[in-house]
């Protein structure tokens, strides 16, 4: 993978927190994700990209450590790894920070405000969980679009959103449409299906 990165290849590295999530269920790991190992891995790739003529740290995407369904736990992890994540972002790596849209949680705008207390704007990507492929769920899609509108209004410098857990682009297209109707701001969207277009996708590393 390192040689591929040196040649300018695109890689997404999932720290492990979001692996296996879906629109309706969270998972419990038998073996906890090894966030330190995942960070060491992406740091090595970022340095390899920076040191080569062809490589670009901006071709790297890292999904930050998180605990889906546990906002306080995710925030504690963000605080714990803030320095390392910030260093990656300053190198040019795109860092996806998941936010919660299910349950009794603060608004996405408030969660992003909390994220920006410890991480820079530069190369920050907001990660949201998809509503599911069937879109029983247009209400959910509308809610996410409205939440993103508020984020765009409050933080104009943020323009990138990643949608987790999609098997196709239906929900993504719907979200883009509804967001663009709701606001003049044009977000750049990606999803897990797009990410598989990267030649190499490193998933969770276990202890």
Question: Concise description?
Answer:
The chain is 41% helix and 15% strand. With 207 residues, it is α/β, with parallel strands linked by helices.
Extended strand count: 7
- Poorly predicted segments: 20-29, 197-207
How far the N terminus sits from the C terminus, by CA atoms, comes to: 21 Å
Which term fits the overall shape? globular
Tally of individual helices: 8
- Please state the average pLDDT score: 80
Structural class: alpha/beta
Radius of gyration: 16 Å
Multimeric status of the protein:
single chain
For the sheet with most strands, the description reads: 7 strands, parallel
Helical content stands at: 40-55%
Query: In order across it, which strands form the biggest sheet?
Result: 6-5-4-3-2-1-7
Helix-strand pattern: HEHEHHEHEHEHEHE
Word description of this protein:
The structure is a single chain. The chain is α/β, with parallel strands linked by helices. The chain is 41% helix and 15% strand. The protein is built from eight helices and seven strands. α7 (170-182) links the parallel β5 and β6 (188-191). α2 runs parallel beside α4 (82-91) and α6 (138-154) crosses α7 (170-182). Residues 20-29 and 197-207 have low confidence and may be disordered.
Properties at a glance:
207 residues; alpha/beta; seven-stranded parallel β-sheet; globular; disordered C terminus
